[in-house]
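User: fumarylacetoacetase, Saccharothrix texasensis:
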Amino acid sequence: MSWIEDPAFTADAPFGPQTLPYGVVPGGVAVRVGDQALLLRGLALGERLEPVVATGTLDALLAAGRPTWSELRARLVEIVSATSAPRGAELVGLDGAVLPFAVADYVDFYSSRHHAENVGRIFRPDGAALLPNWTHLPVGYHGRAGTVVVSGTPIVRPHGQRRSSTGPVFGPTGRLDIEAEVGFVCGGPVASRLTPDRAVDHVFGVALVNDWSARDVQAWEYQPLGPFLGKSFATSVSAWITPLEAFAVARVSPPPLGNDVLPYLVEERSWGLDIDLQVEWNGTVVSRPPFREMSWTFAQQLAHLSVNGATVRPGDLIASGTVSGPARDERGSFLELSWGGKEPVVLDDGERTFLEDGDTVRITATAPGEGGSVVGLAEVVGTVVPADER
Ligand SMILES: O=C(O)/C=C/C(=O)CC(=O)CC(=O)O
Ligand SMILES: [Ca+2]
Ligand SMILES: [Mg+2]
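Assistant: Predicted structure for fumarylacetoacetase:
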């Protein structure tokens, strides 16, 4: 029996010893154990590891690279599995967790075929659902790193310009939406021209992302250069980053693209992941997006984004793109769930198309772990607050 007495710290719960995600609470860098956080600062981790976790962020750990990540995880498994509390062990609550790392670049992909086809049909009803490049490269765009916020941060309804029958108008968005995504947090040495098989050494861990989107602003502004103010006001990310190592048995092959890809995108063994997401809108579960349905993996995304010589550096956040499956109740955005606002979504407390002020969205996820255990991704939650006065 572990010295950590917490009913949520078991192999069949998402934050048992098989998961051990990292975050930062008011006491410093910590690892999540069930519904508590174990501070790393007082633990005897050895001369090499102690300075890496002694700061108030995960930045030094991200920079340290794969051998350090593995060593620390192995040491923490030992510590949390011990029968008596090791010297210096301090358990605290999860409250007050902050954005645990400095976001370097934020890139958002578009790797769900179902999402891409749905949005294509809604935004471009007269065109092809899928554009011809989509099965040949992981389509993406550069987002805004400075407005990535930690789970729990209130989301102010953004202002913007949108189309009306009489010309452009300005004001708070009337079509505030979510995008349920999986984010990959980069680390290790600065590198470029990664192969998909080397990309794994540049991914520290996995988090959930909600890429809030103002659909009316986006629909008017996006051509020809892509999303801009419709998505740059806020992107929420989990407070706890689950190490990539926890996903060893969750690896799956993605659905076939239907054509060969160029050699620089070929993976020896695929990094598709069998993660099940769940989206709650004001407490009602409205969708269960399956990440295994994503057509492009993070390894291919990193190979693609660095193939021109662009560097990948610690703190880069790579979002998968909205996770949507083939079924209606597997769609990862309300744009799709309400089919462009035409088919209301029924919640326990009323009907909705897009978000209203006061609405709360909570995204959670799990994956299969070693020996039948459950690996969790920490929730990403946000509540919409009214637009500024002007
Ligand atoms: O197809 C479009 O014009 C726009 C699509 C999106 O809004 C999606 C986006 O941000 C990428 C994604 O999350 O899949
Ligand atoms: Ca997105
Ligand atoms: Mg966003």
